[in-house]
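Students often ask why we bother encoding 3D structure as a string. The short answer is that it lets us treat folding as translation between two languages. Here is a chain of 383 residues written in the first language.
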Amino acid sequence: MMGYEQMNQITVTTAMMKNFNNQMGPIRSHKKTTRRTVATINGGAAVTAATAGEGDSRLNLTGMSLASLSASSIDLASISKLDLSNNNIQQIPESLVARMLNLWELDLHSNQLKTLPNSIGCLSKLKVLNVSGNNLQCLPETIKDCKSLEELNANFNELTSLPETIGFELTNLTKLSVNSNKLVLLPSSLSHLTSLRVLDARLNCLVMLPDDLENLVNLQVLNVSQNFHHLKALPYSVGLLMSLVELDVSYNGIMVLPDSIGCLRRVQKLSIEGNPLVSPPLEVVEQGVEAVKQYMSEKMTESYKKTPMKKKLRGAIGTVVKFRTFHGLRSSSGRITGDRVGGFINVSDYRQINGIASPRHVSHFNPLRLLSPVSSYFSPPRH
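And here it is in the second language, the structure alphabet:
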């Protein structure tokens, strides 16, 4: 005769199987199916499911109150999407992740994770990773090896920093969400994420942003709001984000917006409320986005006009000559050729520079571009 505990276990197993099969949908008969067993250590319950052996294979174990995982009998290599969200999982086994060679989406949100396994770097095909709503204090350095990653959601954790190399390797990343953490700084390598379209870093403790943000040529949405008194200034490069459509810097400690804000021609939504702003003044802010951009543009032009011409030349041309960034002006001996006027080379052969403070040209005169050995604005004379 079957004992009470065995009957109870069968009842739990049957109910979980029914729920699981309903989520997975019907299985087409013409496809070869593979029997898979997921053993979850959760009061002895076991879930067994049949999934398609060809094409996309998705495993949905969301909301099953799982505390831990053991999947030694599953063919993990064929799973493309795994949803383990809304459970009580505290740890993901290294060996389990290392076997998910074809996984492209992993959802671990709303669990009790304190760390992610280092083997996550083995997921070379992973495109979407959601680890929001956990207790993570850091992300593993090996996440840089997920080179196919396009979306990373790490909201609502306890992150104090991001891997320094994250920007050098995750070049396909289009969306980075790290809001509601304890971040103080964003890694300087972030500026190498040239595919990035959305950066959400609100509700942190950021004290500053990376200087060379202008390299984020595809960034459309930047949200660094609600860092409160920690964030007191924005870098000049914010105004050089030429693809930016939405900028939210509200509820910080910013007193002066950089003049370069006037160059953001595509910005349609600009949220700057909740700051102790002096420039632009409140009466300009109340007039809307276009009024703010116009004010900052005029302020930038006026500031440039007040700069002595000699200082302009020293800042623009003299510095470039010092670092030898003009191309095609060297003799066979390696020395720079050409007439010099007042210690500078004669640049009459180069195209005229007009409207240096206008939105059209301001990005070309960013100091980082001027000092670059591959500067494209100053080109050799044509003969």
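Translate back mentally: The chain has seven helices and 14 strands. Keep this in mind for the problem set.
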